[in-house]
Write a sequence for this structure.
């Protein structure tokens, strides 16, 4: 849809903390970006909460949805039985042209399913990809897929490379993103059938800079801007990196605070470094994982998202709309349409 400012459907009922976190985070993003918000949820509840929040400078309206997608429910059941769930209503707003994108911290499986079957895929895209932004030694890297498509064909990985290119360019500002394919060795010919065929496709692709294979240890060096893998590998890598960063923080604090005067002095000296480290590994800095390849923008947030994370995710959605990321993704898919047909043998 065309609009002077992005129009974003916010699943106000999603997440562990619901509207008490979603509303203030989204309203802050609206003030920062000028985006118009469609706050989707139980109308009476949202109207009760809004007077206690800072709504000045935010353009919004409430869109009623009487149901909520439960975290213990199957995505297929939510699609079939909960037609008035807030995530379904939000995705229909995009499908019907009333909104440019959706932001949700609710059931991630339902967000993916509703995105695919309600909003629909971009023409030429076989599978959507869920992307995550990871900190590295140099600059953030886009890792995809991290869970939307667990069982991939070579041409799915190939298209993930095209999607990652568009994402790194528009979100991270990389003019010519370097794309790496996650494998069990850096040399060409390493990996399973899926990875080896995807390598050949990416090597022949136009409009992208393919840097070859990378190993798991290379994810955090910052030597590539995009790391491509299937959703199974990506989700394990993502959860491993989250757990490692939290464990490292706890171990370092414990060691510095263990005993004696010198450790305590070291803790004081390292305080600013800890703050910088915490900011680097904080998922709230980007707020959510873009679900790339859909007709419209979809940002899937962590269930435990705080208001800062929702602000960041909503800001990211507005940026994607303004940059017309989907338009350039379509151009890249069309330019490499023939290659997609070749990677189907595995």
């Amino acid at each position: 849809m065309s609009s002077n400012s992005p129009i974003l459907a916010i699943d106000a009922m999603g997440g562990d903390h619901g509207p008490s976190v979603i509303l203030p985070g989204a309203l802050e993003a609206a003030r920062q970006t000028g985006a118009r918000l469609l706050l989707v949820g139980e109308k009476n509840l949202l109207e009760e909460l809004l007077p206690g929040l800072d709504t000045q400078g935010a353009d919004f309206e409430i869109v009623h949805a009487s149901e909520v997608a439960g975290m213990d429910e199957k995505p297929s059941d939510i699609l079939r039985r909960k037609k008035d769930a807030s995530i379904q209503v939000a995705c229909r707003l995009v499908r019907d042209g009333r909104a440019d994108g959706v932001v949700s911290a609710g059931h991630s499986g339902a967000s993916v399913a509703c995105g695919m079957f309600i909003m629909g895929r971009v023409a030429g895209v076989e599978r959507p990809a869920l992307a995550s932004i990871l900190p590295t030694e140099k600059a953030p890297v886009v890792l995809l897929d991290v869970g939307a498509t667990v069982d991939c064909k070579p041409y799915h990985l190939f298209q993930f490379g095209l999607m990652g290119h568009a994402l790194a360019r528009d979100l991270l500002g990389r003019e010519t993103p370097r794309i790496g394919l996650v494998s069990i060795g850096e040399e060409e010919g390493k990996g399973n059938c899926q990875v080896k065929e995807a390598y050949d496709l990416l090597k022949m692709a136009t409009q992208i800079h393919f840097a070859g294979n990378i190993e798991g240890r290379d994810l955090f060096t910052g030597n590539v801007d995009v790391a491509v893998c299937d959703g199974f590998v990506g989700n394990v890598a993502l959860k491993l990196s989250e757990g490692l960063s939290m464990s490292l923080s706890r171990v370092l604090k414990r060691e510095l605070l263990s005993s004696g005067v010198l450790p305590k002095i070291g803790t004081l000296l390292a305080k600013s470094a800890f703050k910088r480290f915490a900011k680097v590994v904080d998922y709230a800095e980007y707020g959510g994982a873009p679900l790339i390849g859909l007709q419209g923008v979809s940002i899937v947030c962590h269930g435990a998202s705080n208001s800062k994370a929702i602000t960041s995710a909503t800001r990211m959605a507005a940026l994607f709309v303004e940059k017309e990321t989907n338009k350039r993704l379509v151009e890249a898919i069309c330019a490499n349409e023939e290659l997609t047909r070749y990677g189907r043998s595995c």
